[in-house]
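If your schedule permits, I should be very grateful for your opinion on a structural question. I have a record of one protein: its chain in single-letter code and its fold written as discrete structure tokens. Would you kindly read the sequence against the tokens and tell me how you understand this chain to fold? Thank you for your consideration; the sequence and its tokens are set out here.


***
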Amino acid sequence: MFTGLVTDVGEVVSVAGDDRLRRIRIRSHYDPATIALGASIACSGPCLTAVAVEPAEGGCIFAVDAAAETLARTHVGSWREGRRLNLERSLKIGDELGGHLVTGHVDGLAELVARDPVTGGDGDPQWAPSDRFTLRAPPQLARFIAEKGSVCLDGTSLTVNTVEGDLFSVLLIPHTLAVTTWGERRAGDRLNLEVDLIARYAARLSESRAAVER
């Protein structure tokens, strides 16, 4: 399990394999001594297993394998050398749950429709502008996204601001833009989307109850 709070931004070093299985090596600032083989690391959304770890300047390089299901449901298949990734280590008992419960099981891809600056602060020069991102959810996932609810996009826990049909928006503050890959995102990009776990099970429960009543 994860929280959607990014703890490092890694970079893809190499990609090998085909559409059935790809091995991806990722450079990070994590201490190699703290990554055990088999450890789970969320890499811009999907939970991937560390299958190799080696020390490197400033941290380590760890390798993960992405199978056909992951390549089909996420944008992992488009990763190339130099791609920057939002990274998060899995939760330990006693860790602070600062975002929301995230499984690392990506449901689909959301399309970034627009990125707009948000200004305010009554002209105060100390006010740092934020950015509003409007995204389109796949039709089968839109019903799980609710205003003021949580959503995980490229491994980042965010609060939904508005919802209109299959469109929804999130607001990112300057700090988040600076410490994640969100500062690089532009209209047309596709992002790994994981809907809120509670919303998913609530919808399933409602559907099962309705089926019984019929």
User: Anything to note?
Assistant: The first helix runs from residue 68 to 73. The radius of gyration is 18 Å. DSSP finds four helices and twelve strands in the chain.
